[in-house]
Structure formats: C-alpha cells, structure tokens
Design goal:
Blueprint: E1 2-4, H1 11-21, E2 26-30, H2 62-89, E3 93-97, H3 102-105, H4 116-125, E4 132-136, H5 139-145, H6 151-162, E5 169-173, H7 178-188
Parallel strand pairs: 1-3, 1-4, 2-3, 4-5
Helix pairs in contact: 1-7, 5-6
C-alpha cells in the first residue's frame, strides 16, 4: 500500500502507526523502494521527504525531466521486483510513502517538466499498489506543521493529491487520530 498527500499532512505518522500495529513482517520505503537488501521495518521519525527546490517558473529542463522519469521507471520496477515482491510473498505489510505519484501531483518537486500523459503512462506501467491512501487535512493544520506553505498552496495540494489516479484508492482525513486511520486502512486491506 502507498500513502500520498500534501507535505505535512501526516503520511509518515500514519505509516509508523500501520507498521507498529501489524503483527507480522513489515517493510517501509520512501518514494522509491530499495533495489538491494530488505525493506526497513519502520518509518523514520519526523518524516522522510526532503523536497528539492523546484524552479518557481517551471522552466526546468524537459529533457532531464523525461530522463529522470524513465530512470525512475527502471528503479521503481527493480525495487518492486527485488524488495517489495519478495516481502509480499512472505506475507509482509509493505507501506510506501508517495511511490511514483509525485510525478503527477508534485512534478516540480521531482524536477519533471514534461506532459502529464507521459507521467501517467509511466505510473500505469508500474506495478500498482493494492491500496493508495490519500490523506487530506484542513489547510490551517498543515500550515501549522509546515510554516513555509501558504493556505492556498495546501488547498491546491489537497485537490491535486486527491485527483491522483489509482485503481484502488481511499481518501481519509488526517484530523482523525493515527490509530483510528490505521485501523480503517487495515480493514480495507
């Protein structure tokens, strides 16, 4: 399963709660799964995403962005093949933070300046998570956690992340306690 949503909404907190409440083997990855070695059994404290500084004008190199996207396709696929799939075969709960979805919902953060259809095609070519959990929160809560964001930016991020296409997706309010959210997610799995 993968957790998505705006910066500061509580993705890492929910991942930690899911992993701690799962009785069996578990694994976590942030953005891209590792190609070698086992998945960590827990999420990092305090979040794990350090967003790159996007070009505010959106004038980044399209060619480099396309190259990054295609490189990510290979790395995501290899990570799934060598880390995620073996863990799933053993019955592990695998929780991912973001997966490849920033190419659609936050392309400037991953320096992708290409067309949405290309990002969408690459994401659909990847193995699909059993469940995508989209966390949302009122802008004032997110701004309190991420002071560098404005209310308008958070509102836009909420809308963008909610529009991410996934075969199996649920949207949950991060206002609810993490334990309650984790129980809802585990019911759906």
């Amino acid at each position: 399963m993968v957790i998505v949503g705006p910066d500061g909404v509580g993705k890492t907190t929910l991942a930690a709660e899911l992993l701690s409440s799962w009785p069996g083997e578990r694994g976590y990855f942030h953005f891209r799964p590792p190609i070698r070695g086992p998945l960590p059994a827990q999420a990092p404290e305090g979040g794990g995403w350090v967003a790159a500084k996007p070009d505010p004008a959106g004038n980044g190199s399209r060619l480099l962005g396309w190259a990054r996207l295609l490189r990510s396709l290979a790395l995501f696929g290899a990570g799934h093949l060598f880390s995620i799939r073996p863990a799933l075969r053993r019955g592990a709960l695998v929780v991912g933070d973001r997966w490849a979805y920033p190419y659609l919902a936050a392309p400037a953060q991953v320096h992708f300046y290409g067309p949405q259809w290309l990002a969408r095609s690459v994401i659909w070519a990847l193995p699909q998570p059993a469940l995508v959990v989209c966390l949302t929160a009122p802008p004032h809560i997110v701004v309190a956690r991420k002071a560098e964001l404005t209310m308008e930016q958070v509102e836009a991020q909420n809308r963008t992340w909610q529009s991410v296409p996934a075969r199996h997706k649920t949207t949950l309010s991060a206002v609810d306690p993490p334990r309650m959210l984790a129980a809802r997610v585990l019911e759906q799995l």
